[in-house]
Amino acid sequence: MLCTVCQSTIDPGDSRCPSCGAGVRRPDPDSERRFVTILRADVIDSTGLVAELDPEEAVSRLEPALAAMRGAVRQFGGIVSKELGDGLAAVFGAPIADDNHAPMACHAAIELVRRVASLGDPGLQVRVGLHSGHVVAYMVASEFSKVYEIGGAAQHLAARLEAAAEANQIYASEACQKLAEGHVRFESLGGKSLRGFSQPVPVYRIVGASDLSSWRVRRARSVSRFVDRTTERALLERTAGNAGATRQTVLLLGDAGIGKSRLAHEFVQDLKADGWRLIDAESSPNLQGAPFSTLKRILLSALDAAAKDPGSPRDPRRDLSVIQQAALDAVLDLPISNPHWDELEPHARGRAISDASCAIVRSLADRQRMVVLLEDLHWIDRASDVVVAAIASLQVAGLLVLFTSRPNGMPVWIARCQAEIVAMRPLDDDSGLAMLADMLGSSETNADLKSRIISHTANVPLFIEEVCRGLRDSGTLRGQWGDLALVRPIDELGIPTSIQGVIAARLDRVSKQERSVLQIAATLGPRSNEALLRKIAALSEDVLQGCLVALDRAELLVRIDSELENSLEFRHEMVRQVTYDSMVEKVREDIHARVLSALEGSEGGADDPDKLCYHATRAKDWDKSFSYARASARRCLARSAFTDAADYFETAMRSLDMTPASPAREASAVDVRIEARAAFIASGQIAEWLNLGKEAGRRADAINDIGRKVAAMTVMAAAQNFYGTPVEAVTVGEEVVRLAQEWGNPGWLNAAQYGLGQVYFLAGRYRDADRFFARACAQLSGPEASAPFGSTPKYALLLCCMMNCITHTVMGELDAAEQLQQQAAAIAEETGRPYDRVAAAYSGGWLELGRGDPAAAAAILEDSFVLAQKHGIRLFVPVLACHLGIAYLEQGLFDRARGMLTEAREEARAVGYTSAVLRSSIYLALATHRLGDVRAAQNMLREARNTARQQGFSGLEAEALFGEAVVTPPSDAATKAAILVALRAAIAIASESGALPLKQKAEAMLNDMLARDDRLS
């Protein structure tokens, strides 16, 4: 084996690499994740049955039941994973994957109950529980044997269902019921309280096996129409035409879900309409061990077709010899009266059965053109296989034999009977989209979703249909088939449980080495570089190329033509996902560690911290995960990808916390939270921003680091400005400024002064706000400008200029505001950062509104609003929308104003931006008033005024009071008095705060009302 770090050879007994000293990772090659169905069964009250018996008698009493259980499990392809003394646990769908694991388990349970009941011992009563889910499966080897064990929560639910079942009853989970529905009949028992589960669990009781064929089950579930297949249909039609001269045999070959049965049935229905007789049957996975089960179905269909023949209802068996008639009776499970039949040797009996079956087919084909359709040839029982081969080789004019099969089940005699093999391929993109249009609807609103489904499923019809069904069942798509609407975003399309087994069965057909290569490719992603895969796999070139050729041939991992490099791509994403999900955690960690090592050692590999972070995190290399996540976050910040930056900072913080505790780790934990603030601020995650400051402060306290404590408090105080009330924020902000002055760090003092200025502004203390903004601006404009960690002096200066410009605008000092705005705009022009441009535009729009030019304000704010949304600068979205709505309102565009202000208020609520909620509510009320709803406007303003007063937003309280005066009609003395009270209160607050323009507007309105009253009197 090789070291995952340096790739040196390691002896099997070494615990550490002799070259680099890295610990040896030994993944368990026999462990893997599987999606299976678990069966749990036991004898009821077994203790009471054997309590008074000696050991030999006790074993004799229970062993017949246990033997019956084992036989039923094995008959249907299950593996007994554990015997429990009075019962057993079994698994279906492992160690070899099987997409029919749930139906097979259900049939096994039915057979198990039947076998135990047939023992004739009334004291032996069993109960069975079934559940389908993910497990970890592994082989436990002892000196004498190997046992296939399963682990995980799924087995516990199966055990609880078993314990809840009544005598001779089978209880199944909803997951099992959904997978086996149609193959088995269920009765819903509703939700049951099971031990260990906090909520009632939906439980179903199996009432019997269904007589529906697999095709009819699939057809009943189908919600799409038949599309495309023009090439395959043309070939089938040509073959049918040639059947007039001699027998023709066709095999439709393809993996599960590709559409073999759909094409076959569509085609034979056309033949029936054209006068052909149809004999159809299918091989069943449930009956592979039952001799002649498939042939019996063929013969029953043939005899039924003959009986319905209006032209010649004669029973074709009459033309057979006595021995051949006995042979048919044997296959059809009818009483045999011929004594010579029992005297025949087995070989002679088989020959008679084959001859009789061929004679029946020949007789019917001679009377009328006939098509024999046999589906799922890969599940045929061995006895039927010989006879079907003979039928397929008959030289009879007017006979067409049509088979469907998966590639791994194609019989060896197909070539001998000169069959035409039609390899079924996925649909083309146009046909896939036509299928989706039929299911989802033709609307273009789902165009992106349709493209994602096409890419995800690689146009395999079953996969397309099941993905759509899963989205509808989960409520992601709502409506009726043919008219479905997407109601919430989709992160991942996922893999429906109904097709997990289909894909897993394909993966089980590859060798162990091929599976290993596939796992590495799945870890690398949807597309991988062959050179990188070669380095990680550490296989000889011949072996690697052999694996790649085999995987390409199996259409699992295909080569992509590229002039730059040899690339490999999964045929569709679901194959990659199932491959990745099948690996147990230790195997995944090992491969991710090998990928990480290979990337770090490759040319240019270190230039992609995003990829390195992904693999380091999944390899649980927490030191590297922290380092690469932080590097990725910084790169996202530089690109103004703030939401992505916040996500990477979260990864960095989690990874760091997984490393051993130490003062150095805690110092780094504080630093990364301080640095992360910019990402959380810009993306509008205000609650998280506040928590960053609180957590950083707690950790700084723990290591008694005063400097980091001040930094953390500054971050917390800045968040408090948005998230809390001004009263709380002023107290915190003043304390932070005091501590920053004592500490003597000019960068953090600037940040603290900016934060305190901002909260003074929100509290309506505009002169105090100007004082602190001016101090910060002066220091940041000087030769020794200093900004806090995670920021730059220019960025800090821009924010100070922006806020002080707004402050002077509110106070009516437009010349000072203009100078500050020019300075902010110049910085934004120089840096070109979207965040800086949005910030400068925000104050610019406010200044234009202060100048009385709402059209100019709207032009600035519209562009910045789009820019903020495009780059996810969510903190500015509600305030930009609010002031854009004000600009529309002042231009008389009342409908547009109401729409924009409504959006501003909702976005502010979502972000948690308290002052923006109040301001947008005030101006939304004014727009509502202008549109004629006076009562609603008054209610909104009254609520905003009360909230602003309670929380200390005095500037906004003054604006709300003025708004109340504007929207209240002076219809009588009482309302006039209320208006005068509101105006005088607004004037008083505006005078104290320094909001001169608001004071002047309120005084003008007050004087006008008083003058009108004087004229009237």
Automatic annotation (TrEMBL):
GO terms for molecular function: adenylate cyclase activity; ATP binding. GO terms for cellular component: cytoplasm. One of its GO terms (biological process) is cyclic nucleotide biosynthetic process. Keywords: ATP-binding, Nucleotide-binding. Residues 37-162 form the Guanylate cyclase domain. Coiled coil: none annotated. This is ATPase. It comes from Bradyrhizobium forestalis. The lineage of its organism: Bacteria, Pseudomonadati, Pseudomonadota, Alphaproteobacteria, Hyphomicrobiales.
